[in-house]
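Problem 3 from the worked examples.
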Amino acid sequence: MSATQKLIVADDDDINHLVLAGPGSGKTRVIVHRIAYLLRVRRVPATSIVALTFNRHAANEVRKRLLALVGADAYGVSVLTYHSMAMRLTGTRFERGDTVDERALKRVLSDAVELLEGKRNVEGEDNLREQLLRGYRYILVDEYQDIDDLQYRLVSALAGRHAEEDGRLCIMAVGDDDQNIYAWRDTNNRYIERFREDYEASTSFLVDNYRSSLRIIEAANQLIGQNSARLKEANPIRIDRARQELPAGGLWEEQDEQRKGRVLRLLIDPSDRERGNLQAQAAMLELERLLVLEQGSWNGCAVLARTHRYLWPIQAWCEQHDIPYFLAADKETALPITRQRSFVAAIDSLREIESALCAADAWLRLSGSNQLVEAEWKSFFQTAFEQMRGELGDCQLGSGALIDWLYDYARELRQQPKEGLYLGTVHSAKGLEFRHVVLLDGGWSAQVDTLADERRLYYVGMTRAEQTLALCEFADGNPFSRSLMKGVQQHAFQGQPLPELELRFQQLTLKEIDISFAGRQLPHARIHKAIEALREGDPLTLKEEAGRYQLLDRQGNVVGRTAKSFQPQIGFAHCEVAVVIVRFAEDSEEQYRDLNKCERWEVVVPRGRG
């Protein structure tokens, strides 16, 4: 731990602190060790501490590290996203059939802010809510640069509740103005700048990078240094002290005689701009070359892009070469975790529990049942129950409380990551890190009014890399990679377009499926048995009929049909089960409920390629 980190962690004067932390600088470690110091050294009650994170992934990481560091002392510390905090403050519980979209979440956040600001009251008694409303002594805020106006008001209101109470409130905000990439959500660096004034806060800089090689750090600094009015302008990130004597290219200085760990600019023929065919080849051949040298696996490798369309040829390459991959979904194709067959089956199993159980015992009961067959779902629920135990300790919970907690937890996770090569937009990879990263060209804007925002996004993509970084660049020039000169190697990729990389995939959304089709048939109809037998990846056939498409299994049984609005974007030469969703009669709009013949049924969501 650096001297700066130690000073922040062991602050006994309870100074409000703004920590400007660069990528890979150990900001999560500082937050976790600060909480541990408060618990173990200062003997601060766990219920007096809250850590607010931007998303569930970050909350999980804080909770996991805290449990590893202090064990049961962590029980009772609130590690929450803004939305989960707002739900607890207002006592909100989304019911099974509720639509939980951005509008609904914003409404809950707004209600919580008004409650804390004294503009509204909540009826009834709730011990947990009352405890929260009494406020906290220590508030730690992660990714402060990403907060919007409502989130800023939530933090301010939490702090404001201590104005007339004994004891001094201490707030630590950790952020990086260079990584503000959510301008479309109306986030703004002005909140970082206001923090020092609003809370009379001191400022510390965490700029020692523990993640990336010196070559990657230098390239990232070259890029972001072109933005003006930066808070860390005089404090660029640097390699941590323990690695200062290592070669600039890190392990790859000697391991790779061809590149020597230098950042690579992969130049692509400009005629490839629209299709990305050659770019996909260049990216994947470079990753395969690295994996041969290190004899490694695809786990820990990533291909990142500005938009999803440039990932399509990469996905086709993976399918053609049997490479395991995880495609981070966009908002349109993301499917709710809480409705997937395995999640619902696990919830059904928990409903059968009659006695109150602690989180650890509930997980033992669930893991010993026959409901969790797939390894990925075992991992999902094991992590969830670890998080539950870290938050609630060993208190006894009824099945209803267990289920409510799991629903809230799952709703905050957009999707379930899987093993293999990570394919996603830079936005999706925020907060993640990978051994090898390829950053694709295409879709980057050089317009003057958005140039600084785009440069920050490109910077975030670059700084996800630990060991190697390749930047694809169409030969007529990427607005960012072409500005990098020092320590960067240039390679022009030569190749011919491969027809097989023109393969495209289409996963249907729930709006494109007749989700009540099976529900309008009697409970003992053949369709339900046929769907029950299906597993993810099983083949399907699309058969056009009366302006729609029927979904047939390999035996020719009808297992679903598309909505009238469905328009094939590809030829669907091959179709398979993407996932099976559970639907309940109560989900239907009231005027259509009488048409349902089942209380619940399963819906097949297909994906095709062509």
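Problem 4, a separate protein:
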Amino acid sequence: MAELTKKNRKADEADFLISQSTLTSLTVLKGSGPSDAEIGLAKCSGNTEQQWFHDGNNLLWGGNRSYCLIPNYSNNTVTLGDTASPAGWIHDEKSRFVTEGGNKAMDVPWEEPRTRVILYSLHDGTNQKWWTLSELEAKLDGALPAQYPVSAKDETTYRQEMARTISNWLAPPDAPLPYKRDVETFPGLVSLDAPRITRNLVLDLSVLGQTRDFRMTIPKDWQATNLYVPPDEMVEVILPESLTSERAAQIQVRVSAHTDNLQPTSPNVKDKEFKRMPMVSETFDLAPGANKIRSQFGGHLIFTFSEGENFLVDIEVRKVVEAPYFKLGETTKEQWAEELKKGAPYTLLETDLVISVVATSDAQNITDPDKLMDRYNEIIGMLNYAAGFDETEQPPRGKFWLVNDKQITAGSAHAGFPAMFDRTYYNMGSENTPYDWVSWHELGHNYQQIPYWGGAYGTESTVNLYSLYNQRQLFDEDRLEKQGDYNRAADHVDAGMTFAEADVWEQLVFLMEIKFAFPDKDWEMFRQLRKNTRALSEEDAKALASDRQKQYDHVYKNLSKIVGSDLINTYNRWSLKISQEAQDEIAALGLPKAPGDLSHRTNKDVFDCGEPALDKFRAEQ
């Protein structure tokens, strides 16, 4: 184990402790001493609250070096203590800050917003790994700027890149950038000939957050602009001097929607390569008056808002460039042709429901942007309906962001906000992409009620209830039918396969068999299930999310009530256990029991639900 003192760090020179999993800096968030200090994480800014001075195995706080960082075993946190009774740390060979007792380490919990720091038993996760800026800077001595791609196994170059990123953050925005970056590879350069302009904007914080817990991944409060921040150039964001500091603190600038932070352990990087710089999106806090910001990477200028007061505010932005931009219902084809002449490397297309970020080189090939964005609107409208939203219950407010990137953390696309799509596989500027299974699938993940029942019945299975709905509406097709999954699953269940043993397609068949067995309910049964799940009280939802058996019961009870038949026999057929309590609840309703075999066998693209037991059951109803 190594002492904290670094060879390249002078005793009176401040250091910074950086979480490898968040790339944020250990800081005193609030307070000024042991009695009131709150230790957590914030963006690396270089202020005294983030500064730490090495003194053997002790870390003295830059805000007051008579205090040092100590473990608080009473509540498993870290805090400030008097240096007269120090409790030191060992920065071990696995990059953890371990208590001198050797049984706990500083840990960053995974729950958003990931600003907490706790003590936790030792493990090898990245959320217990820390860099000091001094050790990162030591890697830069004589190193040439990285050019991509870079091997994922080249740990030295990766650490050098992290050192460049963080050192650039700490540099004043109006001083020369300490380290150049390979922006040309990604996200791209902005022409020096592109006019740097001043623009007046209105930021709309009149409505923030959501009216309720929608129990899904909801759009965040992001306000797009058609402005682009050139890399390595200072821009100014001018807020009114009269704006209160509390209101200003609700506003943040994000430069670039390419939010995936790549690490050597990321599935798309591990044992392969970094195709671009590990992170290219940056955020900046604002204060009343003039705010100077500089992005080392460049990107679209986006304003993000946190909940608080509701208001509109006029602002001014200086030294930015215009990026190609399309707004459905506003931008004409003639205007679009002019937009494409603007020199930013990425283009933004916007509707009332969705924002798509595509490479400008791809946007050059969009001849009918109205048709493209109409299609994105169309599929989101279908997903809203499949989720159970309609005129009686509106979907969450806000717009989904769909972003093309050179390299994402995992898969060829992934859900979340923003939803990310690898440009190598899916061009968001293609008219075919909105109608591709991948779009319904990834956006479907955002609508899933995973903690409440979607995960229990298969995360990668239940998401495709949305995909199948969209496919049926758009093309009158059924992927399970084409793949022969209905017949295959029925044969496997006949042979004794259990639900737990089924693959993702067969688990989806289980739910689809119920749908086909009750055609009068059709997709409505899943719409109502989702509505009922959203209608649960917070207490009931929390209890449901904490108990997998309750999740199996939840779907069984809801679908049985919706279709008007006890589905216990088909659950038994698939060896999907339902609690006796749930069975008794449905039995008390006096519902007829549906047959166990609801197999939906298909033959030559013709649906055939002709199981004798099911036909007899229907005839008797």
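Solution to problem 4. Residues 1-9, 604-610 have pLDDT under 50 and may be disordered. The longest strand covers residues 311-322.
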